[in-house]
Design a protein that fits this description.
7-stranded mixed β-sheet; 45% helix; acyltransferase; Plipid/glycerol_acylTrfase; membrane; 1-acyl-sn-glycerol-3-phosphate acyltransferase; transferase
């Protein structure tokens, strides 16, 4: 039954996304701020599919920690879930994403239309300069920059590998950074076809104000996200039906200690 539900959800996830992108295509003719509503609408529809067909519910804590205006949201990256489900939390977000996503037909057009920030990982210095300029413009427009500091999805319980680029971004933009933790990797693991029922808990942590030394900021950000994410994993362990992924979490932690 779990495999059947997961298969149905995965098929619906991609097919509904394609249908919505085609249906909403006329927004390409509108100014960005008038057409943005289609993106959180897409997110909410997919979250409804997650709840109905995959049994994934969501609990968000700490909304009061989101500042007004422009800031950086530094998010834990365990799953495909957070790339979709966190969007409605923000008023005008822009992801920092791989340039290759711009090349995907239709989807790439949307990333360009809504001024998502592409980065060319093959040309490090040029990519950093271009990203920084786009990020400055986003903050000046009072937008929220969404970034996964680990760069790629990491399994729940795996050793974190945060990249230092976010410290450069923090130093240059001189704006608050909001750390965001969650335990989505327990329910929609990376590179997994199977999706497990349960409640994803998102915790929006107190913002780190501008002005710290980059090294101090980096240490504080990593500690905040990792401590909260580990706590949310342990909280999920106490539920009536713990995720089977917790066995993998324990194995990864043992490997880190051994």
């Amino acid at each position: 039954m779990l495999l059947l539900r997961s298969t149905l959800f995965q098929i619906l996830f991609y097919s509904v996304t394609l249908v919505l992108m085609l249906l909403f295509a006329p927004v390409m003719l509108l100014p960005r701020r008038w057409g943005w509503w289609v993106v959180p609408t897409w997110s909410r529809i997919l979250q409804l599919l997650m709840r109905v067909f995959a049994g994934i519910k969501v609990e968000v804590r700490g909304r009061e920690n989101l500042p007004d205006g422009g800031f950086i949201a530094a998010m834990k990256h365990q799953s495909a879930w957070e790339t979709v489900a966190l969007i409605p939390l923000f008023t005008s977000p822009t992801f920092i994403l791989k340039r290759e996503l711009r090349w995907i037909p239709i989807f790439g057009w949307y990333t360009a239309k809504f001024k998502q920030i592409p980065i060319n990982r093959g040309k490090r210095s040029e990519a950093l300069a271009a990203m920084m300029q786009a990020a400055r413009e986003a903050i000046a427009e009072k937008r929220q920059i969404l970034i996964f500091p680990e760069g790629t999805r990491r399994p729940a319980g795996a050793e974190p590998k945060y990249k230092y680029g976010i410290a450069h971004l923090y130093r240059e933009l001189k704006c608050p950074v909001v750390p965001i933790a969650h335990n989505a990797g327990l329910y929609w693991p990376r590179s997994s076809w199977t999706v497990y029922p349960g409640t994803v808990i998102v915790e929006i942590l107190p913002p780190i104000e501008a002005g710290l030394a980059p090294e101090d900021f980096y240490e504080r950000m990593v500690t905040s996200v990792e401590t909260a994410s580990d706590r949310l994993i342990e909280e999920a362990r106490q539920t009536a039906r713990p995720s089977p992924v917790l066995h993998q979490v324990d194995s990864l932690r043992q490997a880190r200690q051994g």
